[in-house]
Design goal:
This protein is an alpha/beta fold. The protein is 28% helix and 23% strand. Strand 3, helix 4 and strand 4 form a beta-alpha-beta unit. Helix 1 packs across helix 3. The chain binds pyridoxal-5'-phosphate (PLP).
Length: 390
């Protein structure tokens, strides 16, 4: 490998997580796997294939460019853009056979015109706002009438209708669900039927089985992130973040470390420098709270994190030397900081930590326990070695 610092993505675990979700929801609920933000930092093109081969039915992303990246790799997988696409870009959506979220009549009419012009029947999922106030037709009678007009447009396939939980509390979740149910019932009574009605993200899909409808939109749980509260699911963190010690040195009590000497050695100590910084997605505010694992033991991050490097206290870990493996995020079983623990340490959520990984840090994909591909965005073909899988 050309760099000691890398993100390890375990495709066996990803596959197993999808299978766990499939078993939990049964065969009749479609799984729209949310792989926006580069599959929460895991690499969307590679993950898409594993997910679709192990129980995924649909791929869901936030933006047109995310959808195009997937469409270029996979001509046939169904792809839903859950967010807004500008009017000027709707032609791309139609031409590339991508399903678009729709929340204005204007855009529905535009898509219908494009469908007619291109001889295609673009698929849409109507977004219905049950309280989140992000995107969606407002919850009122007028919207029902608008959606009925949209459903009658000749060149559109009104495939789905969906909403999103704010997850404010149990009572409000039930109220949001009821609002969607009531709207769908009115639409159905007026002759408008949807193949996919959906509202559940990861948490709701596990905690509220009664809300699953025809489709769920799990993101976090694909990657083994557990945030649900009422129920459990046997899923596992897919990612590890590792590097190797670059340098070991001894400090005298009172020596400063890193910018502003903000940290001063409280005793004679041994310091290891590791080639990971905030430009690799390790949060700068891990200062004073971050811990890494070396030789099975925890070492504290000391001194202000730099862009490309940071220092850890290895005084109490005997024998540490240059080249030793350092685990930034890993499994509990190896005494490593999990994504969940790291999120608490630096005061953010698990998803944000995953999304922080940057293109400088290569990804190593494991399958059947062995590395099958090294993705390095800085190299001309993006690969360090010939890939055996996408
Ligand atoms: C991101 C997103 C999801 C997935 O959320 P998780 O909490 O990661 O499961 C589902 N639906 C929409 C509309 C989203 O934007």
């Amino acid at each position: 490998m050309l760099r000691d610092t890398y993100i390890e993505v375990n495709l066996d675990r990803l596959a197993d997580n999808v299978e766990q979700i499939r078993r939990r929801v049964g065969p009749d609920v479609a799984i729209a796997a949310v792989i926006k933000a580069d599959a929460y930092g895991h690499g969307s093109v590679t993950c898409a294939k594993t997910i679709m081969e192990h129980g995924g039915d649909y791929l869901a992303v936030a933006t047109l460019t995310e959808a195009l990246e997937l469409r270029n790799a996979y001509p046939d997988y169904p792809i839903l853009i859950m967010g807004y696409t500008s009017n000027e870009n709707l032609r791309n959506v139609v031409e590339r056979g991508i399903t678009q979220c729709i929340f204005t009549e204007e855009q529905a009419v535009l898509l219908d015109q494009l469908g007619g012009e291109l001889g295609m029947k673009p698929k849409i999922h109507i977004k219905y706002d049950t309280g989140f106030h992000r995107l969606g037709f407002p919850d009122c009678e007028e919207s029902i009438q608008t959606i009925l007009r949209i459903a009658k447009l000749p060149n559109l396939d009104c495939e789905g209708i969906f909403s999103h939980f704010a997850l404010a509390n149990d009572e409000e979740n039930h109220r949001q669900f009821q609002a969607l149910e009531t709207a769908v019932k009115k639409l159905e009574e007026a002759g408008c039927h949807f193949r996919y009605r959906h509202i559940c993200d990861s948490i709701a899909a596990i905690d509220y089985p009664e809300f699953r409808l025809d489709m769920i939109r799990p993101g976090a749980i694909l990657y083994g992130m557990k945030s649900f509260r009422k129920n459990d699911l046997d899923i596992h963190q897919v990612v590890r973040f590792v590097t190797r010690v670059a340098y070991v040195q001894d400090l005298k009590k009172g020596d400063g470390v890193s910018y502003n000497y903000k940290y001063k050695a409280p005793r004679d100590m041994r310091l290891a420098t590791i080639p990971v910084g905030y430009a690799d997605g390790y949060p700068r505010n891990m200062y004073e709270v971050g811990e890494v694992t070396i030789r099975g033991q925890r070492a504290k991050v000391v001194g202000v994190l730099c862009m490309d490097q940071c220092m850890v206290d290895v005084t109490d870990i005997p024998g540490v030397c240059s080249g030793d493996e350092v685990i930034l995020y890993g499994d509990e079983a190896e005494n490593a900081v999990t994504i969940a623990e790291a999120a608490v340490k630096c005061g953010t959520n698990k998803n944000e930590l995953l999304c922080r990984f940057t293109r400088r840090t290569p990804k190593v994909y494991l399958k059947d326990g062995k590395p099958v591909k090294i993705l390095n965005a800085l190299l001309p073909d993006g690969q360090e070695k010939e890939g055996q899988t996408r």
